[in-house]
Write a structure and sequence with these properties.
Length: 100
């Protein structure tokens, strides 16, 4: 059994409130319609998910004509060790929570 269609003025209000990033339940309270009606209207308008309001920015890709034109180098600062560790010496007696 199908009910009556949501009036256009209410549907526009639902869309406006959704674009302000309100949840379906808050929209239902504001427009004085049921949460199910709000959910159906949002699905019909393609605004059911918050990410549908503002789609993600497309990935930026760098394309080059020839392989190797652009290189990628990972740079990471590594700590200097002042003594040999237990994996080499087998001596775990010098370990403590505070020493590095």
């Amino acid at each position: 059994m199908r009910g009556m269609a949501t009036p256009e003025s209410i549907a526009e209000g639902i869309a406006t409130l959704r674009r302000r990033r309100l949840t379906g339940r808050h929209i239902a309270v504001e427009t004085d319609v049921s949460a199910a009606t709000v959910s159906r209207a949002l699905r019909r308008m393609g605004l059911a998910r918050l990410k549908d309001i503002e789609p993600a920015e497309p990935m930026r890709r760098y394309e080059r004509e020839k392989p190797g034109e652009m290189i990628h180098i990972d740079i990471k600062k590594l700590r200097r060790f002042d003594r040999v560790g237990h994996r080499i010496t087998g001596n775990r007696t010098r370990q403590s929570a505070g020493s590095a």
